[in-house]
Amino acid sequence: MPAFIKSLEFAQWRYALVAAVILIIGGYFYLGGGTSLGATLTISPSDFSEQISVSGTVISAENVDLGFATSGRIVGTYAKVGQRVEEGTILAETENGDLIAVVAQKQAAQAQALANLASLQAGTRPEEIAVASISVASAESALVNAIQNAYTVCDDAVHNRADSFFTDPRTNPKLTFIVANLNLERLVENDRIATESALASWALLVSKLSNTNAVDSAKQAQVYLVQVATLLADANTALNQGVPNQTSTAATISSYATTLAIARTNVNTAATALTTSMTARSAAESTLVLKQAGSTGEAVAAQEAAVAAAAADIRSAQAKLAATRVVAPFSGTVTRMDAKVGEIVSPTMSEISMQSNGIFEIETYIPEVAISRIAPGNSATTTLDAYGSSIAFPAAVVAVDPAETMKDGVPTYKTTLRFLKEDPSIRSGMTANVTIVSGVLRGAIVIPTGSVGTKKGASYVSVVKNNAVVSRAVTIGPSPALGQTQILSGLSAGDVILLTPVL
Asked: Which residues are within 8 A (CB) of 438 and not within 5 positions of it... i.e. 6 or more apart?
């Protein structure tokens, strides 16, 4: 018998032990000559609990290896080996600041879409339309101011700052310092000519500015801004390649660079402010249009679609953010933490391992002779070597592998049982002794296997009747336990048999 199988046996219910089923009559029957016949049994059918006893190993019910869904640099680890964590706990994450900001933006957009939908569903009052109209006018006024400010900033950046390193900047601009790359020098000088033309057109546009033409003027102003920004960027490149000489020393070039940096910062700030004002005016206009449209079915449906789209955007952004984090899929204990801050990881890497808290299983192997009697749902009683046989832990079969596993040359089937109650004393790796209740034999006749004889290939028992011994053929069933055999036919209640058959 393989070492992994402790025993395979049938046992009676607690209320019907073998000693209560089969009465062992001590003493002996005698024939006339005083010859001893030996010990006898009186047959008494009863219900028996069919049991199979095996050994196994305690394992965690859930063991997982975790990793990142995307590549990135780890910026934080938030658990240690041995630490118990709750489901949903972030265990580690890679760089994701930009994704967090995107999620916040998408959530704000959804909130606005929901607010617009609620407004449509509630209906629009005249006062609300009036307020929305005022908001549009206010946004347009702010846009006019942003255009004017952008022109003022750009005019200052060119005429008061960048022109400091040009000679005759407005009609025939030439750089006052030498540039190693002659083509770059000519590019900057041509930029200055184009910028002068753009500023002149911009000045004319500003002179005709009003709320009515603010939107179109803002779009044209953005074109002029690009031209100014191009000049400043190319000039910065030229300064970086400037060659100091007697007239343009290193200190002079450095001073030019400082002046240009201020100009570029001011222009970028003005460009951002203009874009913000354009966005605000567009939002105000959208709100006004929605309110003017009223609560038409089409308008409500369109806004509902906008809400759904916003929700989808949030889910998409959240999914991208989630891919940067390793999250505990269940409450359990961290068993491995290989993730380290600063490490570059990829989706193919397993960085963290966990096992579930308190939920343990037993992995055992049932030989083929008994596997037909094992099925999910079978109850079981378990003892652990660590605590001795006096402490029992209830369990139940939860899975039986369909494919065999060879153990010591014997086909077996991996069977998994789960403890029915959480118990802090149960730990992974412990040796378990399992008794599985696979069924109940009703009104069964079970006798010691040694009481069954074999003659010419047929089974028989020695029956004592009227102080005489006769051989009676029997039909045997399974040998449910070591040393026991079920009798299917040939014996009845009250029959007396010899424990040791007579040939």
From this structure: 50, 51, 52, 370, 373, 374, 375, 378
Name residue 431's beta-bridge partners.
57
Closest listed residue to residue 374, CA positions, set 46, 50, 78, 82: 50
Q: What is the DSSP string of 91-129?
A: EEEES-HHHHHHHHHHHHHHHHHHHHHHHHHH---HHHH
Q: How far is CA 87 from the centre of its chain?
A: 10
* pTM beyond 0.85, yes or no: no
Q: Which of 418, 415, 438 is nearest to 367 (CA)?
A: 415
Q: Give tens-digit pLDDT for 363-405.
A: 999 998 888 889 999 999 999 999 998 999 999 999 999 999 9
Which residue pairs, CB below 8 angstroms and at least 24 apart, start in 36-40? 37/464, 37/469, 37/498, 37/502, 38/498, 38/499, 38/500, 39/498, 39/499, 39/500, 40/464, 40/496, 40/497, 40/498, 40/499
Rounded CA-CA distance 153/268 in Å is: 10
Whether residue 39 contacts residue 502, with contact meaning beta carbons closer than 8 Å, is answered with no
CB neighbour burial string for 159-176, b if at least 16 within 10 angstroms, e if fewer: eebbbebbeebeeebebe
pLDDT tens-digit series, residues 87-144: 999 999 999 988 998 999 999 999 999 998 887 777 667 887 888 899 999 999 999 9
Three-state secondary structure call for residue 29: coil
Question: In degrees, to the nearest 5, what angle opens at C-alpha 238 toward C-alphas 233 and 242?
Answer: 150
How far is Cα 146 from Cα 211, in angstroms, rounded to an integer? Answer: 12
Instruction: Report which residue type is found at 24.
Output: I
Phi then psi for residue 80, to 5 deg, are -120, 160
Asked if pLDDT for residue 14 goes beyond 50, the answer is no
Q: Read out DSSP for 218-256?
A: HHHHHHHHHHHHHHHHHHHHHHHTEE--SSS-HHHHHHH
Strands (E) in 368-424, as ranges, are: 379-384, 388-400, 405-407, 410-419
Secondary structure tally for the chain: helices H, strands E: 8, 28
- Mean pLDDT score, 415-427: 90
Share in percent of the chain as helix, strand, coil (round to 5): 40, 30, 30
Distance CA 37, CA 123 (A): 106
**pLDDT higher than threshold 80 for residue 484:** no
Report the alpha-carbon angle 419-9-18, nearest 5: 110
List the domains of the chain with CATH numbers.
11-61+358-498 (2.40.30.170), 63-96+324-356 (2.40.50.100), 124-293 (1.20.140)
